[in-house]
Design goal:
Length: 103
């Protein structure tokens, strides 16, 4: 078998192997920043001054914003687990505005 044919066989085999690899969607920095801004805007509209933390699927920080006038305690709270109806309302409002970018 010539070297040229061997190269073609190898390339075809590699293409089939790569096609079978699982693909994973990632949270881009642009979408993460949009989520953070929209969540902060919703909380602001509800009268809260907050810090917002957005993490990726591995729970690694992807975006962080702290509103003007938000206390230092909000930074620590944002770094912990989300909790309460206010967190859920702000997060859901943000996600509903960027849902098209998540597809």
């Amino acid at each position: 078998m010539s070297l040229n044919r061997l190269s073609v066989v190898f390339a075809a085999t590699a293409a089939v192997a790569f096609a079978q690899l699982p693909s994973q969607k990632i949270l881009t920095v642009d979408v993460a920043q949009s989520i953070a801004q929209e969540a902060m805007a919703k909380c602001r509209a509800d009268g809260y001054k907050v810090s917002v933390r957005v993490v990726d699927q591995a729970n690694v920080l992807k975006a962080f914003v702290r509103d003007d006038g938000a206390g230092m305690a909000t930074v620590q709270v944002a770094s912990g687990a989300p909790g309460g109806d206010k967190d859920a309302a702000c997060a859901n409002a943000a996600l509903s505005k960027v849902v098209d970018k998540l597809k």
